Amino acid sequence: MNRLDQKIASLKQQQRSGLVCYFTAGDPNYATSLALISQLGENGADIIEIGMPFSDPVADGEVIQAAHIRALQSGQNLKKTLKLVKEVREKDNDTPIVLMGYLNPLLQYGMQQFIQDAKGWVDALLIVDLPYEYQAEYLDLIKANEMHFICLTAPSTPDQRLAKIAENASGFLYHVSENGVTGMQLHQQNQLDHKIQSLKSFFNIPVGIGFGIKSVEQVRALSGKADLVIIGSALVDTLAKEGVEATLQKVRTFADAL
Omega of the bond prior to 28 within 30 degrees of 0, cis? Predict the structure, then answer.
């Protein structure tokens, strides 16, 4: 069992939803990023998701795109991101870390070399722009190095494709919800609840819901329904505008809502 397996087992035993916090490595600079990420676990994050900076993060919104730009301008790259993870591990060797990013930088680094360099430090990998049809060649390598392969789904993903994705997914599922929860009409909330249950019928791993979750009310609405609540932009935006301490306070507030 790697750290992610242990955390999932712990959450299940506690019968609660887990909090996944996303930040971009090196945003706004290496030192700040290290100081923040090293403290996430002790401030309520159950799982840490670290974005690997890329010049063309097309799947991300404006807030996280800006974080990628800041990180790259500060000199962050894939090698430094692995260094960051290793330094985080000196202070927090328990909280699972998921690296999230795009295929191009990984290929430039060398996929096999990257996976080997990440082994023991990183618990899972999410490659945003690697479709199901091209995952097979990397799956064995990732799993042989004791990491999980996190897969993405969207509300538009057809059932037939969900069944295929379920064959490769491990660790947890990242479902990109197109709508927030607060302010939704009752039938929309019911639709999301139904979607979560539907996903659980395809996947025998925890279901995480992300995208657009910004408020405590949204987190509470998902608590006990989604296995994991994934928050990115709201935290990245707070870091950019208010700094590390305010961001950690927001993490604690979200954690308390679960």
Answer: yes
Query: Rounded to whole angstroms, how far apart are CA atoms 244 and 147?
Result: 29
From 27, 42, 46, 49, active-site residue: 49
Q: Which of 27, 60, 123, 237 is catalytic?
A: 60
Q: What average pLDDT is seen over the chain?
A: 93
Contact 28, 244 (CB under 8 A): no
CATH number at residue 174: 3.20.20.70
Which residues pair with residue 231 across a beta bridge? Answer: 21
* Cβ–Cβ under 8 Å, residues 224 and 14: no
The number of CA neighbours under 13 Å toward the Cβ of 102 is 14
| Ramachandran quadrant class, 26 (left: phi over 0; alpha: psi -120 to 50; beta: rest) | left
Low-confidence ranges of the chain (pLDDT < 50): 180-184, 186-187
What pLDDT shows up at residue 59? Answer: 79
Give the predicted TM-score (pTM) of the model: 0.95
Q: Spell out the residues 6+ positions from residue 31 whose beta carbon is closer than 8 angstroms to its own.
A: none
Classify 37 as helix, strand or coil.
helix
Count other C-beta atoms under 10 Å from residue 130's C-beta. 18
- The answer to whether residue 167 is catalytic is no
The yes-or-no answer on residue 49 being catalytic is yes
Give the DSSP letter of residue 119: B
Q: Domain span at residue 105?
A: 3-256
Q: How far apart are CA 203 and CA 188, in angstroms?
A: 22
Please count the structural domains in the chain: 1
CA angle at residue 131 from 129 to 134, to 5 degrees?
115
